[in-house]
Design a protein that fits this description.
Distance between the termini: 11 Å
Radius of gyration: 34 Å
Length: 619
């Protein structure tokens, strides 16, 4: 190989443009000719350096080392050129040689000079692409007005979140350097700009409601009908950065214990199998109970739009089920199963005392649960005592109580030592202790004892309230309220505990799909980031559901790890007569890969590609 200098002149301006090209000499019917390997642009190098550069580039393409790699200016220039050299361009040469290769597929090669390059992840991408097609996302996005390239960009963004979760910037780096997904798709996306990844998130967001409704319908058809049970809950995630111009970024209690960061809230409505019905995005610190009316309005639109055609049973946790929200459900005639936000178990303390004599026993999750159904007009209430919940609450109460009593004893000693004696200051310290342990402090009477003058304190004392004993009886107890008075106690209990499906969805979004943290500093990009994660969860739950049907209960995180060793690479083989053979090929699936592909019905659509270059000797 060698570098030639090509000059072109602008006929109008007379300006001369110089372009350097890496070429190789090949034999043709018309004699020797130069074949262009790559355009190099205008190189500011001497003739000697151009010769050295050509040798380095030839060695790199052949998978060898050159003597001139040690020269920093030559090596760095070669780095820049190779970084922009697309080995897939060799397919143009492949077309020229296809007939010859088919007639003579067997060629001698030097095994000791075999190497490979461009190894890219393939296994998880095959699964993600297959599920994208199974859920008809191409058609759904086409109905939204997306063009072919935009549909493929959307698939890249969603499968990136499924396979290698991260920010949109990380997605851009992934598609360029670490995945074979661009080979699976029709469009060559290796050279896509990072702005395109951000823009496609914006575009997906504009069609959010249609996409979610269409997916709910498709999933209902594929996975044995629509569910009549919907589960609703909220979670939050935190931002990195100040987010000064992000209206969604607000202070709130962080479930990840990141109260130092601004928050954003994600609400999900899922069915009893875990498939999302739709999502909502709110400001951080959003009160759970204030979101229900919007959810019901969205459901009403879908019902009148004939997507569901029925009013599902709504299952919600204590944080949403206020008295007003329960009244709203009744007013709109929605069946429900909830735990009320108020401590309803106090009304049934007499019943809970007789728990072991009168309650039905369920063995659940290595824990004993006692349940009793009580009819109240057209409603039913299920009294529940969970030994597992009781042990957990008792352990937490005991720890808080020990810490509170320790703080009170420290204060008592300080008073005895006369380190602190002013009544106002002692009262402040008692107040701070009660604020620190509110769930325990309410069960204690704490008295400050003044001295004879009444200006200073001589001691403090405390005692348990009778209410503390009542709390001990009700530890681990809760009351489920439902409109389904016709159901058996065990059925009501099982329905409420399907809430674990929405909890699992949030866990997947946070742990497996890169929802946290959020790096975006504007609201639109934040919403787009969260929506892409929700779309990735659609793929995840579909994959896991199919695998479970065939007895494979592994989570996506495990499947992804197993498939990560299935890759696609370019093998470089050196043959006789200075020939170098480039073979782009998928790895042979191992047994565990094959089992997953067989279960999901996946075949690798990528074929072997072969290219042969004849290189002029560098001597």
């Amino acid at each position: 190989m060698h570098i030639i200098t090509a000059k072109t002149t602008n006929n109008k301006t007379g300006a001369i443009y110089i372009n350097h090209k890496l070429v190789e000499s090949v034999r043709t019917e018309k004699g020797p000719r130069n074949r262009i390997i790559m355009n190099l642009g205008n190189l500011d190098l001497s003739k000697d350096d151009l010769k050295k550069l050509s040798m380095v580039l030839e060695a790199r393409i052949r998978g060898q080392q050159s003597l001139f790699e040690a020269e920093e200016n030559i090596s760095s220039k070669a780095d820049q050129i190779i970084a922009h050299f697309d080995f897939k361009r060799l397919k143009d040469i492949e077309a020229e040689q296809k007939k010859a290769i088919e007639n003579n597929p067997a060629v001698p090669v030097y095994l000791d000079k075999t190497t490979y390059t461009e190894s890219r992840s393939l296994g998880p991408e095959l699964v993600g692409h297959h599920m994208w097609q199974k859920l008809h996302l191409d058609k759904i996005l086409s109905n939204c007005g997306f063009k072919d390239r935009e549909i493929e960009l959307a698939e890249v963004a969603v499968i990136s979140r499924l396979v290698e979760p991260g920010s949109e910037l990380q997605c851009w780096e992934w598609i360029k350097n670490r995945t074979a997904l661009s080979e699976i798709l029709n469009e060559d996306l290796v050279r896509v700009s990072k702005d395109s990844i951000y823009n496609i998130a914006d575009q997906l967001l504009t069609s959010k409601e249609y996409i979610e409704a269409a997916l709910a319908e498709v999933e209902g058809n594929i996975f044995n009908g629509r569910s009549t049970l919907f589960l609703y809950d909220l979670t939050n995630t935190y931002f990195e950065g100040q987010c000064k111009n992000n209206r969604l970024a607000k202070r709130g209690k962080s479930k990840e214990k990141r109260n130092d960061c601004l928050q954003v809230t994600l609400a999900l409505l899922v069915d009893q199998r875990g498939f999302p019905i739709f999502s909502q995005i709110y400001e951080g610190g959003q009160s759970e109970c204030e979101t229900l009316e919007q959810v019901l309005n969205r459901l009403e639109e879908d019902i009148h739009g004939k997507l569901f055609g029925f009013k599902p049973t709504l299952v919600m946790d204590r944080g949403i089920a206020t008295a007003d929200n329960i009244a709203l459900l009744k007013a709109k005639n929605y069946p429900y199963v909830v735990i009320e936000r108020r401590d309803a178990e106090k009304e049934y303390s007499d019943e809970f005392i007789k728990v072991k004599e009168e309650f039905e026993v369920i063995e659940s999750d290595n824990s004993t649960v006692y349940i009793k159904k009580i009819i109240d007009g057209e409603m039913a209430r299920l009294l529940v005592l969970s030994n597992g919940k009781k042990e957990k609450e008792e352990s937490m109460d005991k720890l808080k109580e020990e810490r509170m009593l320790s703080d009170l004893n420290k204060l008592k000693k300080s008073i005895k030592k006369r380190n602190v004696i002013i009544i106002e200051k002692i009262a402040q310290r008692i107040g701070r202790i009660m604020e620190r342990y509110p769930s325990v402090a309410k069960y204690y009477d704490i008295k400050l004892i003044p001295d004879a003058s009444g200006k200073e304190a001589s001691d403090i004392n405390w005692s348990k309230k009778p209410l503390r004993d009542e709390r001990s009886v009700l530890t681990g107890c809760y009351v489920i309220e439902t409109t389904h008075h016709e159901l058996e106690a065990r059925e009501i209990f099982n329905i409420y505990h399907t809430l674990t499906q929405v909890e699992y969805a949030f866990r997947c979004l946070k742990t497996d799909l890169g929802v946290r943290p959020v790096y975006h500093q504007i609201a639109r990009r934040t919403s787009g980031h969260l929506f892409i994660s929700v779309l990735a969860y659609h793929l995840l739950i579909a994959i896991e559901t199919i695998l479970r049907e065939y007895g494979d209960k592994r989570k996506w995180s495990t499947i992804r790890k197993v498939l990560s060793t299935h890759t696609r690479s370019t093998i470089i083989l050196q043959g006789e007569m200075e020939q170098v053979h480039y073979i782009r090929v998928s790895g042979q699936p191992e047994f565990e890969h094959q089992e997953i592909y067989k279960t999901l019905g996946i075949n690798d659509p990528l074929k072997m590609r072969k290219v042969t270059l004849e290189h002029k000797s560098s001597t």
